[in-house]
Predict the 3D structure of the following.
Amino acid sequence: MSTLHTVNKSPFSTQSLQSCLNHCKDGDAVLMIEDGVYGALTNSNMSKQVQTKAGNVTIYVLSPDADARGLIGDKLLGEVIAVDYAGFVKLVTKHDRTQNWL
Amino acid sequence: MSETKKFLYVNRKAPYGTIYALEALEVVLIGAAFEQDVSLAFLDDGVFQLTKGQNTNGIGIKNFSPTFRALGDFEVTKLFVEKESLEERGLTADDLQEIMYEDEDDDWEEKPSIKLVSRAEMADVMADQDVVLSF
Amino acid sequence: MAYDVNGTTVEHDEEGYITTLSDWTKELAGVIATAEEIDMNEEHWAVVNFLREYYEEYQIAPAVRVLIKSIKKSMGPEIGNNKYMYELFPYGPAKQACKIAGLPKPTGCV
């Protein structure tokens, strides 16, 4: 049993990502979408925490949203996996439930 | 003759996730017609508006980041960006677009519009205005 | 509502601005100009081409002042001035020339 968590807010303006990371279980997946993709930035105040968590949960970023915001190449954490819209759908079907951290 | 006032547009939101950033830019462009003393402040997630390399093809939203480079043509030449906000987000000045304007008082020399300021200096910029519009 | 360009239709809004910017062609510009009762000459084209180039770069139409400065540089002061722009485009260079250039209605134009 596992959960897909989605986060759509910037971690620098709300506690959504923080709270999501505090509550997700080993084996879960976290997908950053919309302004949530800023959680995948390198060298930010959040980077370390996301990197550490990536050992236990798989962290994804929706690439159209990352591209829109210029998060490409070395701006993105190596631990984070980029998926497209089809990949998003696959993640939804793969997990038992989806929880949205608004 | 009406007197010129100092207007500050405060940008604290990332682009695309909400409509605030685009709305602010449109108000700035419309407001430019009134020939006031305009400054823009970028702090908190607002600094993300100015980053390089934005490509919105995949999300079906217009990429308005190139429009910041046209602000000089509208005589909007003061873009204050807060250093601490950049640092918290792992960004440096190199991650921002180059935005230039031609200084008509200095033989149309090209000068940078972006001015990096500390949080304390940003507070001074804010306190120095007649009108502050927040987005 | 649509323009007819040699048998193909191009959608436009109630004021005549095309709805899909990538629909624009030189032929379409001619059709819109005819609808606006403008006979396109070299000077009209200079304005339309500048507007398109500027929009391509900045995703916005230029301020009229910027347009005039550029035309003045390329075609001389007798063409690059406010009065002459209104002779070329009687309903205003911003509104009318943008329409022919296939750009959205300029921000702030009522």
The longest strand of chain C covers residues 2-5. Chain C touches chain B through eleven residues (CB under 8 Å).
